[in-house]
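Tokens for chain A. Residues wanted.
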């Protein structure tokens, strides 16, 4: 199975779209990609929306047919995250686990807040820079619960299975062990990144504590069950597009309809990235 991308328009424009293909056929990154890459070993698929160090607020479009990735807008203008010192752009590869949904009609027992109506977010902390539309295979390590305008906005912490540290990292405490300071930086980033836009500091449930792997896996399971209710019609979709090309249900598009949705898009090769320029170096203060 091979995932590739097709693009429509140019980056940093209102028309830019990134479609995802599987074996040359356009699919929905929300509905068609399975959440598990290897269920027996607990390996999940993750769709990269925002590569590390970049600022454009790219996200899977819930409302558009086949859910391409596009840049978020506000009042007709493209949205970018600011650079609250000492951070630059997003500090991880940021994306989502497919076939999950944070149900806005359900209140979480622990956070006492409803879901944010999106696929569950992932912060992939490996050293390699991703690209928009890339499908990574990741190990889940933990989760944080951001409370954003009264909604639960889970942030799963995960690492690419091909990362040099992946075999050593199996739970949330391993993040601090092998990447000292990253959990603190992640907490800080989410708390302050909206302040430059004159918005208040964000808050976390659990006092900002990152919950462990078992807790994270359970959260993902709950959001996967919510997605199942969404795609089956048990939950109200509202403006969410349920169109797909793989599920063989009432929302599955024909080849002709798929071609109409993606008309004008162009297949892309993965970008060439000199990863040596972007490698993290975590230096513990105790060793200085």
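Reply:
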């Amino acid at each position: 199975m091979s995932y590739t991308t097709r693009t429509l328009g140019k980056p940093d424009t209102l028309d830019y779209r990134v479609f995802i293909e599987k074996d040359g056929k356009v699919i929905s990154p929300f509905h068609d990609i399975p959440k598990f890459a290897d269920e027996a070993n607990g390996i999940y698929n993750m769709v990269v929306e925002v590569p590390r160090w970049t600022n454009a607020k790219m996200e899977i479009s819930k409302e558009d047919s086949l859910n391409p990735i596009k840049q978020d807008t506000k009042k007709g203008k493209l949205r970018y995250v600011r650079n609250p010192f000492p951070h630059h752009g997003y500090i991880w590869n940021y994306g989502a686990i497919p076939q999950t949904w944070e149900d806005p009609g359900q209140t979480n027992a622990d956070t006492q807040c409803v879901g944010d109506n999106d696929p569950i977010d992932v912060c992939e902390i490996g050293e390699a820079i991703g690209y928009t539309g890339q499908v990574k295979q990741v190990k889940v390590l933990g989760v944080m619960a951001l409370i954003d305008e009264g909604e639960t906005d889970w942030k799963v912490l995960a690492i690419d299975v091909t990362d040099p540290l992946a075999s050593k990292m199996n739970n949330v405490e391993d993040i601090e062990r092998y990447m000292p300071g990253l959990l603190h930086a992640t907490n800080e980033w989410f708390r302050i990144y909206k302040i430059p836009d004159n918005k208040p500091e964000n808050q976390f449930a659990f006092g900002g504590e990152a919950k462990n792997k078992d807790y994270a896996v359970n959260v993902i399971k709950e959001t996967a069950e919510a997605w199942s209710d969404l795609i089956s019609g048990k939950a109200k979709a509202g403006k969410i597009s349920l169109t797909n090309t793989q599920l063989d249900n009432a929302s599955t598009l024909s080849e002709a309809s798929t071609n109409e949705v993606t008309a004008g898009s162009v297949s892309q090769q993965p970008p060439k990235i000199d990863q040596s320029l972007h490698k993290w170096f975590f230096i513990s203060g105790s060793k200085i």
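The mean pLDDT is 96. The longest helix spans residues 213-232.
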